[in-house]
Amino acid sequence: MSQSSLPPANPSILVQFDALKDFIARALLANGLSLEHANKVASLMAQADLQGSDGHGVIRLPQYVKRIRAGGINVNPHIKVVQDKAAMAVVDGDNGMGHLVVSHAVELAIKKAADAGVAWVGTRNSNHAGPASLYARMPIAHDMIGLYFAVGNANHLPPWGGMDMLLSTNPIAAGIPAGSEPAVVLDMATTVAAYGKVKAKAKRGETMPEGWMIDRQGRPLTDPTRADEGFLLPIGGHKGYGLALIVGLLAGTLQGASMGKEVVDFNKDHTTPTNTGQAILVIDLKAFGEPSFFKGAVDQLVKDLRSSERLPGVERVWLPGEQSHAKRLAYKEQGIPLAPVLVTDLNALAAELGIAALTV
Fold first, then answer.
1. Are residues 177 and 140 in contact, defined by beta-carbon separation less than 8 angstroms?
2. What DSSP string runs through 250-281?
3. What pTM, to 2 d.p., does this model score?
4. Residue 184 contacts residue 324 (beta carbons within 8 Å)
5. CA gap 186, 192 in Å, rounded
6. How do residues 82-127 score in pLDDT, each as one tens digit?
7. How far is CA 341 from CA 13, 54, 104, 311, 346, in A?
8. Nearest alpha carbon to residue 133 among 3, 264, 280, 8
9. Are the CB atoms for 154 and 128 separated by under 8 Å?
């Protein structure tokens, strides 16, 4: 089929942030979460879509509901600290929604870093919590740096040169405060693409670029509906494999959470607790001096990078987090674009739950 004969892409449906957050909250309330917990999870999920992390936002709601209904997630968790020292803690999430567990860990790390200058808080018995940048950004409002690590919720990466999928996308994120410039926020999987992006491509009926996945014969795999026939590729070849391993050891093994063959594929298993591990490292700028000096230096570096000489055909040098920042501003005003098939699925879920449909 030639390019000119391809069927036109379905236009996105725009949804306001508040309408999306309200819909998610109502769906979670209908499945047993408290009002406080439903609103907190809904806000974080809608923020994921607001910044363009569409593989980790409302697209995950039907999956979360399925796990809750199957008993795979505890809707009334007792989240508690099980290891505690001045500059570290381990939080047991009691198999609650990951958004609740990780935000609890970040809030604790911010408090500890204010006293100790730096703090590491890890989680165990957590669940999928959405995009890593949500949590790396939280300390920025306190003039703090956030470094986030997580074990993915399904293994899609084999060891370098192997075929047994023993590692996940294991993301890392960093949030660096700036002054007048947008914060520098890096959010990346240790694979070329996060599996959530594969799911989003499938939902939109799009193909994947070559280089995201290969099949078990080493051939490029571009059909996202056939993702089970292959595996993701690590960034930078063997270096990405090594990075995925280290992130998993820090975010999972160190906290007593799942890693390697212990990882539960929450795409297929809706009942087994995942024992997901995440970790946040928070650094207080005030421990190093006046925060405005650091943020001013970040501003200058950002300007130097952005104004540096570009290769032919390159319109702009982007900084990590700038495009997400631009999407937050645009989507807040214009609405968040959702795939029509996703809206159809969400409204089918609404009918099943007996709640009002998503307002578009």
1. yes
2. HHTGGGT---GGG---TTT-SSS---B-EEEE
3. 0.93
4. no
5. 14
6. 999 999 999 999 999 999 999 999 999 999 999 999 999 999 999 9
7. 10, 14, 33, 39, 9
8. 280
9. no
